[in-house]
């Protein structure tokens, strides 16, 4: 930063720039005679990319030289990476997600830093220049690519990048997303099989017509989605009965998720009822009515 005129303390003000390769002893110096100068460029065609230099800047005027700034380390400009990442692998996670991983390129450190990686993903019937691009930061060597079409062939390639640009691309690898589950059939329907209360919880048993890897559910409008992993044809939820609940539930599998069920509202049980008082006939009717609720899970539109 330039020195304000009121602090120059005399005519003939200028700067002395001293610099040396990092780790060496002797300083090189140059004079910048303009008091308004804010930069100096040292040119050396043999200078390797991203070379570290120690730099300090002093001041002078017609009366003599002033003090130098503290020493700082700066780098010459870097080049873009010159080699591609290796060992690129891709695997399908679901009908809409794939995971890609890679190993860093073999590259000499003096060529510059690798600040991250760019993953390109394009469908077999698309042009590569229209590929989806995802950038990672730092040393991360895997990422997930989402919002893909189910049961489709994709190509993926990876390249490193830094401030100078992106390097060469790896060879493309192929992966086919999983086939979406057809949830339009009755096999993907879920039913409230049993509903009962035992202090201090509700117990709700959902029944499925086939075994599913898991169930997603949300038990009120504000809560985040919870996951129950199961390889059975039923799943039981237990919820405290000290508040109202609105339950949504849907199955999921490797091929994707089913659609959310219609909302089921379960009212808060009063303290008196929780202690066992109240009409047993009324309670039986309530449980009977709730146990007949059916949740039909239908498929979302095809990807």
Automatic annotation (TrEMBL):
It holds the Pfam family fn3. One of its GO terms (cellular component) is axon. GO terms for molecular function: cell-cell adhesion mediator activity. The gene is Cntn4_1. Residues 1-79, 84-180 form the Fibronectin type-III domain. The keyword ATP-binding does not apply. PANTHER family: CONTACTIN 3B-RELATED, PROTEIN SIDEKICK. This is CNTN4 protein. GO terms for biological process: axon guidance; brain development. It comes from Mohoua ochrocephala. Coiled coil: none annotated.
């Amino acid at each position: 930063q330039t020195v304000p005129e009121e602090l120059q303390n005399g005519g003939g003000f200028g700067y002395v720039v001293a610099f040396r390769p990092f780790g060496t002893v002797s300083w090189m110096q140059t004079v910048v005679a303009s008091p308004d100068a804010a930069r100096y460029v040292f040119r050396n065609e043999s200078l390797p990319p991203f070379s570290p230099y120690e730099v300090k800047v002093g001041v002078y005027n017609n009366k003599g030289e002033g003090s130098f700034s503290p020493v700082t380390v700066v780098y010459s400009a870097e080049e873009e990476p010159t080699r591609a990442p290796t060992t690129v692998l891709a695997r399908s996670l679901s009908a809409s997600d794939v995971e890609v991983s890679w190993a860093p390129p073999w590259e000499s450190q003096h060529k510059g830093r690798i600040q991250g990686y760019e993953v390109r993903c394009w469908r077999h019937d698309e042009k590569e220049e229209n590929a989806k691009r995802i950038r990672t930061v730092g040393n991360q060597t895997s990422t997930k690519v989402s919002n893909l079409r189910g049961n489709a062939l994709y190509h993926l390639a990876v390249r490193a990048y830094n401030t100078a640009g992106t390097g060469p691309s790896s060879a493309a690898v192929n992966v086919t997303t999983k086939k979406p589950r057809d949830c339009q059939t009755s096999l993907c329907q879920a039913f409230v099989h049993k509903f009962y209360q035992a202090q201090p919880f509700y117990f709700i048993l959902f029944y499925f017509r086939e075994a599913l890897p898991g169930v997603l559910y949300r038990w009120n409008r504000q809560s985040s989605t919870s996951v129950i992993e199961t390889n059975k044809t039923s799943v039981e939820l237990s919820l405290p009965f000290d508040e109202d609940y609105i339950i949504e539930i849907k199955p999921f599998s490797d091929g994707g998720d089913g659609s959310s069920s219609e909302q089921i509202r379960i009212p808060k049980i009063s303290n008196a009822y929780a202690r066992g008082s109240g009409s047993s006939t009324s309670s039986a009717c309530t449980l009977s009515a709730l146990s007949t609720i059916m949740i039909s899970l239908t498929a979302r539109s095809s990807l």
